[in-house]
Design a protein that fits this description.
The protein has one domain. Helix 1 runs antiparallel to helix 5, helix 3 runs antiparallel to helix 4 and helix 4 runs antiparallel to helix 5. The protein is built from five helices and three strands; from the N terminus they run H-E-E-H-H-H-E-H. By secondary structure, it is mainly alpha-helical.
Length: 147
């Protein structure tokens, strides 16, 4: 019984963290003269036009639209988890993490005009929580059937 409560808590917390991240500051864009703080919802809706001022195609122009696809993978994972399709939920959640984290790599490697703030980490952490919940349920169900 404790297993089901923990699983439900992980699942619901991942959804709440995901939704909350859209209200938090996610990115500070120093691209223009004045730093612009973008909340998660602004990043979600403006990611394709955020760097339209720059005429050259850069690594950022290639990574940010792909990172946006992490949202799609997350919701596929949430749906599959609710339907008890744990392998699919795990694959979708891990795909969301893998697609989102190149943005973190850009930040670590020092892309000069982007700063990530706590909203990004809550957003990407929600995907990690979903992956943990799916992996935990897969492990527990397998263990239950084996012994």
């Amino acid at each position: 019984m404790r297993y089901k409560k923990l699983l439900l808590a992980l699942y619901l917390f991942s959804i709440v963290a995901y939704g909350t991240s859209f209200l938090m500051d996610s990115i500070v864009d120093h691209h223009n003269h004045e730093p612009t703080v973008l909340k998660g919802n602004a990043v979600f809706f403006q990611v394709f036009i955020l760097f339209e001022y720059d005429l050259r195609i850069s690594f950022i122009d290639l990574v940010f639209p792909w990172a946006w696809l992490a949202n799609v993978a997350f919701w596929i994972g949430v749906s599959l988890f609710a339907l008890r399709k744990d392998r699919g939920a795990l694959l979708a959640a891990e795909s969301a993490v893998l697609v989102a984290y190149p943005v973190l790599g850009m930040w670590i490697w020092g892309i000069p005009f982007i700063d990530l703030t706590y909203g990004f980490f809550v957003w990407s952490g929600s995907m990690v929580l979903l992956a943990v919940a799916a992996r935990y349920r897969l492990y527990y169900e397998r263990r239950k059937h084996v012994g």
